Amino acid sequence: MNSVPEGSPATAPGHVTTGAPAAVVPGFDAGPTLLQTLRALGTGPRGLLEAEAEIRLARTGENVLPARRPVPWPRRFLRSFLDPFTAVLLCLGLVSALVTAWGTACVILALVAVSCLLRSTEEHRADRSTQALRELVATTATVVRRSSGDSPPREREVPVADLVPGDVIRLRPGDLVPADVRLLRADGLTVHQSALTGESAPVVKQALDLADPALSGAGPFAQPQWCFQGSGVTSGSGTAVIVATGGETRLAAAHDGRAGQQRASAFDRSVRGISWTLIRFMLLTPPLVLMANAALRGRGLETLPFAVAVAVGLTPEMLPVIVTTTLARGAARLARTSGVIVKRLPALHDLGAVDVLCLDKTGTLTEDRPVVAAATDGRDQADPDVLRWAAVNALWTLQLADLPTADALDEAVMDAAGGDGPPSAGTVDPDAYEGVAVLPFDPVRRVATAVVRRPGRLGVHTLVTKGAVEAVLDRCAMDGEERDRLLALADRKAASGLRLLAVALADRASRAGAYTSADERGLTFLGLVALRDVPVPSAADALGELARRGVRVKVLTGDHPGTAARVCADLGLRAEGRSGTDDVVTAELVDTLSDAELVGVADRAVVFARCTPEHKARIVSALRSGGGTTGFLGDGVNDLPALRAADVGICPRNAVDVAREAADVVLAEKDLTAIDRAVLAGRRSSGNIAAYLRITLSSNLGNVIAMLTAGLMLPFLPMLPAQVLVQNLCFDAAQLAFAFDRPPASVLRRPTVLRPRDFLRFITGFGLLNAAADLATFGVLALALHNASGDGGEAAFHAGWFTENLLTQALVMVLLRTGRSAVERRAGGPLRAAAAGLAAVGVALPLTPLGPFLGMSALPPLYYLLLGSVLGLYAVGLTAARRRYERRHPADASEAVKERVGAWRGARSARTH
Predict the structure, then answer these.
(1) Do 703 and 576 form a contact (C-beta atoms < 8 A)?
(2) Which residues, in sequence order, are CB contacts of 844 under 8 Å at separation 6+?
(3) CA–CA gap between residue 644 and residue 27 (Å, rounded)
(4) Distance CA 803, CA 42 (A)
(5) Can you give the pLDDT at residue 77?
(6) What is the pLDDT of residue 20?
(7) How far is CA 18 from CA 82, 180, 246, in A?
(8) H/E element holding 872?
(9) 33 torsion bin: left (phi>0), alpha (psi -120 to 50), beta (else)
(10) Cα–Cα distance between 272 and 8 in angstroms, integer?
């Protein structure tokens, strides 16, 4: 244990240094002493006064990274102009203004303004909702403060944002280091600082008074007395003083506001690819229209406003608004109904796309509290002393390591040892020993050691080591034959589904110095404690639901292969169409595989046993490389690398701080049923966005094709630029209904995947059908308006086509909404209402005083009768085309998904019988 004495002086309260550690003193090589650091910060080991902390908070600001500060609404509004579609619209509006087409320019700018206003408002509202949700899982820190100068220091939990330089904090396993700190005391402290350095192994930290000269050239992260914001405590405990907060930390400087950014999901990449394809086509449209009209009709720049309007007609300018609104509503509904918090809105997309879910079994498939089944010696004979010594280790590890809660295995051991009544003669009483020191468990050593003093044995310390069987045996003094025999015994027990802890002892001469892992050698093996896992009652049903949704479950655990395989078999979880050893892979095999080989193995196997944190992260990365969209559910420090490697990191609300901070989604509790509901919410959002893109772009493309064709066939423009833009504005308003739609059940059966090639084929096919209906309207207009001529005929033509366009778009919204049955298609309440409103505007607008202002006149009754026939034929053709498309692209689960469901049901049935 390293520490500094109490009573270091604190200087004037007004003096505070708010910079990074290097700002406290120039450089890390020489570095200040610990006392100099405390004086420079105006603090001491007893902590700050509450009043002084409030003054410093007002002066330095909240302990929040710059990237996390709320974005003001005006800045968000200006930033929305950077959207590709918005930028193209602005350019088209400027071109219209340059050729004095003021009407076209004004309507385009109005479209841009409305789109940016809606988008920035929805994003601002979504950010406020997300921030409110994040506060439900806000990370806190244990700070030491005093109410007055003569009062004793008192520990209390405060939000991380309220920490200030000079605060003294406590660090425990699972804590996220909340700021840049210097250690005052450290007891077996190790931290993960991969967010800053990329190193995967935990780093040992100590409370040195001076910098280590041997590490002078290695940089600040190698100095053991410093811990930095973004690191996570993996083991041990410590006390530290904060030297930098907020934007002055090393994390803020190293990441430059980019910390926490995620890679684009497959859905985002697909939407981006489709968007840029449309943008290229939009940019090509005006010059093509100008050249065609000049060559065939002898028209010049007077057709430029029409060409610009046609290009605008292709633009899904409501896409950012729809995406933001849909995700925000989905996240809010999920939090309200299921207690699931989505910290990053785009993660809702990724949740809907998840087809591989990786998780540990403890607390998810099995109860958090295992039950001790037996305690035996090396000859497999019952021995109560093995359980008692295991309880000694558990008790003093909990107390001396300053752990917030006991490990589930330790709790089971202590409960079993305490429930057997008073110890009999010759057995071990855990309460009769005095704890001296502890080496807490960590995922690398895989053991925990408690050093105790036995009654009546002066000058002797007893080391009690408990942990994984292989790790304990490696530390015992025994020959290879005996080790192999004990490993075989442990394997037989583990194959029956038991979890095992090995226990060993060693006596050492007492000493005052600190104990290290080097002392865990030459131990005497005592025996094995066997524990039995109890499956979670809801796990089997939840696994069945996930299988029906096409989500494969992979179990990544540190347990023995037999233990994990037994639980999975009981729950009916195995690889589709496979059995035997192919289902279970050990970490030793993973170590022998290249990254390319691991991709195939990870796809086939269901259980990965004996996994370290690095194994978990590598397996998740391999599943992603194989084309899967991965989710990872974890709650401990050892899950941190895998949480960051997955497309979606998921953790329960009671997870350790570092896991909560790294996760994208936080569950109210560690429950597979909640994950199923979250996946459904993600698929609803993705389904609505995909439906918006399909319907909007197929309709827009059909209108553009028809207008380009009509522009070359008619002696006048088929629609005036202002009419095109007003029509587009009406359609945009109706499209907002997509954000409020409840997609049909067929959309929820599998992830929504937008493959650009298939998507463009869809919108091209239905766009051509829409163009055919538009062109058929020519004949109707020619028949209904054969006596009209001059400007009156053009105005009537414009009105007729304006009405027909909005009516066909309303039909598309209703008939192309994804749904495999009549009941599903009738369920789209918001879309049906929006389509009815759009149709009403299309019929009524030419008849209002606004009609003549836009260059439209009233139409004869005959036109409406003929138009009804065209629309009826179009509806029949649209329905037939949709059914043909559905036959070629069934929305039911794929054969692989059906096979997985069948395998799950077969395994469940076999277990039941």
Answers:
(1) no
(2) none
(3) 32
(4) 75
(5) 79
(6) 39
(7) 35, 11, 10
(8) helix 861-888
(9) beta
(10) 58
Q: Across the chain, how many H-helices and E-strands are there? A: 32, 22
Helices 672-713 and 721-735: crossing angle in degrees, nearest 10, is 170
Residue ranges in the chain whose pLDDT is less than 50: 1, 3-30, 256-261, 420-426, 575-581, 820-823, 891-905, 907-913
Q: How crowded is the C-beta side of 500, counted as CA atoms within 13 Å?
A: 31
Enumerate the β-bridge partners of residue 630: 356
pLDDT of residue 68: 57
Would you mind telling me the total number of residues written for the chain in this entry? 913
CA distance 545 to 539: 10
**Residue tagged active-site, from 167, 360, 410, 583:** 360
Give the model's pLDDT for residue 701: 81
CA–CA separation, 704 and 278 (whole Å): 12
Residue 324: both structure tokens together: 């933001």
- Rounded CA gap, 691 and 712, in Å? 32
Ramachandran area for residue 588 (φ above 0: left; ψ -120 to 50: alpha; else beta): alpha
Alpha-helix residue ranges (DSSP H) falling in 165-222:
194-197
- Contact partners, residue 807, CB within 8 Å, separation at least 6: 839, 842, 843, 867, 871
Cα separation, 535 vs 370, in Å, equals 10
Q: Report CA torsion sign: 67, 68, 69, 75.
A: positive
- CA–CA separation, 768 and 697 (whole Å): 12
- Bridge partners (DSSP) listed for residue 565: none
The conformational region for residue 427 under phi > 0 = left, psi -120 to 50 = alpha, else beta, is beta
How far is the CA of 480 from the CAs of 468, 473, 486, 505, 560, in angstroms? 18, 10, 10, 19, 21
In the residue annotation, 410 being an active-site residue is answered as no
Distance from the Cα of residue 745 to its chain's centroid: 24
pLDDT at 818: 57
The pLDDT tens digits for 839-862 are: 999 899 988 888 888 888 888 888
Nearest to 653 by CA among 667, 639, 663, 643: 667
State how far Cα 381 lies from the chain centre: 48
The predicted pLDDT at position 15 comes to: 36
Provide the β-strand partners of residue 341.
666
Q: Which helix (H) or strand (E) holds 393?
A: helix 384-400
Q: Are 706 and 774 in contact (CB under 8 A)?
A: yes
Q: How many CB atoms lie within 10 A of CB 539?
A: 22
What does the alpha-carbon distance between residue 94 and residue 106 come to, in Å, rounded to a whole number?
A: 10
- Cα separation, 820 vs 884, in Å, equals 12
Q: What is the pLDDT of residue 912?
A: 46
**Alpha-carbon torsion (320, 321, 323, 325), positive or negative:** positive
Q: Is the CB of residue 681 less than 8 Å from the CB of residue 743?
A: no
Cα radius of gyration rounded to whole Å, the chain: 34
Tokens of 389: 């010594």
Structure letter (DSSP) for residue 181: E
DSSP symbols for 551-596: -EEEEE-SS-HHHHHHHHHHTT---TT--GGGGEEEHHHHHHS-HH
Within 10 A of 663 (CB to CB), how many other CB atoms are there?
29
Alpha carbons 596 and 616: distance in angstroms, whole number: 16
Q: Give one DSSP letter per residue of 34-76, joined into a string.
A: HHHHHHHHT--TT-EEHHHHHHHHHHH--S--GGGSPPPHHHH
Q: Both tokens of residue 675? A: 């994950």
Residues 6+ apart with CB under 8 A from 751: 352, 353, 354, 355, 550, 629, 683, 686
Three-class SS state of 635: coil
d(CA 268, CA 261): 14
